Amino acid sequence: MKKVLFATSALVLSAGFASAEVAVSGDGRMGVIYDGNDAQFSSRARVRFNLTGESDAGLSFGGEFRVDQENYSDYPDSLRSAARGTAGAVWISGTYGKLSMGDTVSASENAIGDLYEVGYTDGTFAGDVEEISYLTGDGENTDQGPNILYEYTFENFSFFASASDGSNTSGPAVTGVGFGIDDEGNQVDTASTAWNVAGKYEAENFWVALGYAEHDDASEITLGAEGNFNNFSVKGIYADYSDRGIVFDDVTGDTAVEFDKTYGLSAAYQMDAILLEGFWRRDETKGVADGFDDDSFDSFGIGAEYDLGGGAVLAGGIVDTDYLDDTVADLGVKFKF
Amino acid sequence: MKKVLFATSALVLSAGFASAEVAVSGDGRMGVIYDGNDAQFSSRARVRFNLTGESDAGLSFGGEFRVDQENYSDYPDSLRSAARGTAGAVWISGTYGKLSMGDTVSASENAIGDLYEVGYTDGTFAGDVEEISYLTGDGENTDQGPNILYEYTFENFSFFASASDGSNTSGPAVTGVGFGIDDEGNQVDTASTAWNVAGKYEAENFWVALGYAEHDDASEITLGAEGNFNNFSVKGIYADYSDRGIVFDDVTGDTAVEFDKTYGLSAAYQMDAILLEGFWRRDETKGVADGFDDDSFDSFGIGAEYDLGGGAVLAGGIVDTDYLDDTVADLGVKFKF
Amino acid sequence: MKKVLFATSALVLSAGFASAEVAVSGDGRMGVIYDGNDAQFSSRARVRFNLTGESDAGLSFGGEFRVDQENYSDYPDSLRSAARGTAGAVWISGTYGKLSMGDTVSASENAIGDLYEVGYTDGTFAGDVEEISYLTGDGENTDQGPNILYEYTFENFSFFASASDGSNTSGPAVTGVGFGIDDEGNQVDTASTAWNVAGKYEAENFWVALGYAEHDDASEITLGAEGNFNNFSVKGIYADYSDRGIVFDDVTGDTAVEFDKTYGLSAAYQMDAILLEGFWRRDETKGVADGFDDDSFDSFGIGAEYDLGGGAVLAGGIVDTDYLDDTVADLGVKFKF
């Protein structure tokens, strides 16, 4: 006794329904990942809920999360849950912009995003090295409960702001509110607010965006631009971090290595049903303690996709990155339902 | 490729569908909780499945659970799961009443319920102090697997009965059946049945209800009443517990403090789109061992809601309770989809 | 604001929708299990997603999983998840057969299946002793990530093949790809491929099937047949295992007991709305170390079902098995939505 969901919104609009709706969509993928030594099967199936409504005065509101984003567990309590504000998001939108709360992306990530992803696993087969390591948001500050993201667009200009609330939350998780525990086992209520502002200018064929973020002592400046010319598009991202420690001295706890810079470029070419994509990216780290040197890590990726229509895409990618010992590749199909 | 679910049942009824259906609805909320020291973001998005069917002879049946109620984990095995009978519920209903099984509320809670909840988090921001601490059901006896609830209404009178099965269940969790483990690590199959009966009389403007529950040595008598006059409604609840130990002597294991009584009153006033609500509640505990005194805990709450239409409500609440050091408050919007 | 899903596909087909769809269906059950000593309540409610699409060239694709199959947890990382390929499945199907990936059944299980299940819990009340213990697939090799299953039918003949990928996966679980950990704590990438081929011949009133599987040193030959005559159907299964160790010497690690053979027979009789079912099954084990003898385990089950219509079935079963000390039984209703 299967229930079939209607796939058109025309019918819905014409029949005068109440405005509040739950839309159900899905995605899937199946194929083979070459991990440098072996070929491994990799597949998944997911379902997403998209909640939308409108108030009497015309304010839009909604929320969204996937079934697999609802994975709460008492132990460890770090797992994310849409019902607890640390996965998915809810939002409200009107003349004055859109405000989202939950596991939102940061202002800079919303404005600039990542390099183009390759392969049927959208880069996951190589550890998602096309993704920029944004300092705040998108899973970075969930120990503070939900984050917020504000978006406002006026003609060609968009403004974005995001923040965490500066309070730890490992208490009554059902509200996303409570206390954290410090290194000595004491309850601590207060953390540093992670915040981020970004601006973007969009013209017909290109956009440029700039963002600034801070969390504790660390800060991030991100610059991004993308252009589309005929069937060709190119995107570049530059991120400069300050005081962003990633390796620490075991004894003193002092920072030993800082994440200093990321810059990368990606390009894509669309030819009928075929899409060719590639990216290059370099991460630079800085040794700030004795015996720790500066270092840099390069990652290259190329991929091709063939649109089979109806929501199915045949795709493959190859990535060579200093983060993995081997060149890795994937090949498979991805689906949208 | 989003699927939009239809929000009207008229269309469904007119088109002669099979009777078995899965309805998908959702809710969400976003806002700020003041925990006495800091303002913290708190948001959530949830989706609920409502399963309904009808047999050839006109017997109704169904079930319901939310995505976030399906959170099974091998470790700890205490997590609740609709697929294992310890969250959500299934039911069957006919001329002779309705029988539900799963994580059902108790007979008394079904008849009487709780005090009015305030705030956009429906009282959660203050630890849900408007909720009566019923002795059985609604998450209290899930170590015995599913509970049952029977409801029967004849004219103005309703009768309710609920029970656990008196057997522990930490065995093959997929059926909700198995063995529990006692303090010495032995498998024990038998627990005390937690049971509850309640009666309710409903007139046009008011109802009164009385319930009695037992679990092990503990028992509970609950009395509740609610009246509606013009735009004003008021509800009172009195609960008297016997032998309900809540603090125990570390050495002897004897009861040190018993939960003795709860009584409270709540009131609401509806004025067009505005709803004003408030409650007061007192819990009394009894010291039954040397060095443990009687005590009482007061909780007050007030709140206001403004219906924005379309399923959105702006709401805020303030609660002052002896269970928390500080006065706490919340303010935000809640949504129904 | 409930959303009602349409229960007919006629409307969907006539209105010319896009091909990609998400169908939502559900099931539930409630009743009482007699565990040999006590009667215990057992209930559940579940929701299933069925994803389907079609490419421009007529290739079908899809996926399916239940809400309760999405139960990922970092700890333990053994929990299964449709979003990580170790629960549910995705598939693609065309002229050349159907290829599934995920937590698929093995070729032999797909061809032959299990004995008839009895009771409203479909055999779960007795530990599912009607299920054949197939060597590969269906939850057996999830430590290697997703499995694959290939099915091809030509006239009355069907061919099935299934396999795991021969690589362990407790690494980056999001892709189902990574490294396992051996007994000494070292990362190991390579396991033994578990593979299985099977063939089946289907005539109007009966089918016969034969399968062969291998994993490490263990192998399995399975033979099954089923016939339907008027209202009567009968099914027999014979499985012969080689080198399938199930008990091991604590000191040397050598195999002490092997699972040697399973054979069983089940029969069913349908009379209007009533279905009568029964099965018998014997498992034989072989002692291969000093002090371990050969043994055999018999299991019997009988059951009856009464179809109430509309998706509801009243059912009960009794099972007597050497695996449990007591005769166990269940009685209840099961629902499809």
TrEMBL record, chains A, B, C:
The keyword Metal-binding does not apply. Gene3D superfamilies: Porin. The keyword Signal applies. Pfam families: Porin_4. Residues 7-323 form the Porin domain. Keywords: Signal. Residues 1-20 form the signal peptide. This is Porin. It comes from Paracoccus broussonetiae subsp. drimophilus.
